[in-house]
TrEMBL record:
GO terms for biological process: signal transduction. This is Uncharacterized protein LOC106154804. The lineage of its organism: Eukaryota, Metazoa, Spiralia, Lophotrochozoa, Brachiopoda. Residues 10-139 form the TIR domain. It comes from Lingula anatina (Brachiopod).
Length: 141
């Protein structure tokens, strides 16, 4: 199976696109990584752990998205679509080119405080509480 943004064999099963806030990093470390890596044995790209120090963050994000089969967009009250616009557009553009959907929006928190980026509004999101089996099915398809 090929990855999201190119035709190479993926290095990661999933890339997690998130705000970069400490709260969201803790959420990923405490909730997502145990489910995805420990239980499901998936290879996850997580910025604070997998990006190469000394490289530009945006370049690392785009390169690692290219090496991933799926992208989880973790949408919390900390997610700022303007700050993450390039990454969002890259993911959506790749989906349009492939005519399939590799982005999985996950809404975590009060929906009144979480803004769905316009580019994701036509994609069915998962909402909290996350049904981990449904998320794994979406990642593996």
């Amino acid at each position: 199976m090929t990855d999201v943004l190119s035709r190479e064999t993926p290095v990661f099963d999933v890339f997690i696109l998130y705000s970069g806030s400490e709260e969201d990093e803790k959420l990923i470390t405490d909730k997502f990584l145990p489910q995805l890596e420990d239980k499901a044995e998936l290879k996850v790209c997580f910025a604070s752990r997998d990006y190469i120090p000394g490289h530009f963050e945006l370049k690392e994000a785009l390169n690692n998205m290219k090496k991933s089969r799926k992208i989880i967009a973790l949408l919390t009250e900390h997610f700022d679509e303007q700050v993450k616009a390039v990454e969002i557009n890259q993911a959506v553009d790749a989906d349009l080119a492939r005519q399939s959907c590799s982005v999985i929006p996950v809404v975590w928190g009060n929906p009144d405080h979480v803004k769905m980026p316009a580019q994701f509004k036509k994609i069915v999101p998962l909402r909290r509480p996350v049904d981990w089996d449904r998320l794994l099915t979406a990642i593996k398809e």
